[in-house]
Amino acid sequence: MKLLKSLFVLLALVCISNLQAQEEKRFKIHTVAFYNLENLFDTINDPTKYDEASPIMEMKANRGEVYKKKIKNMARVISNIGSDYANNSPAIIGVCEVENRQVLVDLVNDPLLLGKDYGIVHFDGPDRRSIDVALLYQKELFRPIEESSHELLIYDDVSRERVYTRDQLLVSGELDGDLIHILVNHWPSRSGGEARSRSKRVGAAKLNKRIIDSIQSKDPYAKIFTMGDLNDDPTNDSVKKVLKAKKDKEDVPLKGIYNPFEKMFTEKGYGTTAYRDAWSLFDQIMMTKPLLEDDYSSYRFWKAGIYNKAYLSNKRGRYEGYPFRSFADGGFTDGFSDHFPVYVYLIKEVNEEEEKTKG
Question: What is the chain's Cα-based Rg?
Answer without folding.
Answer: 22
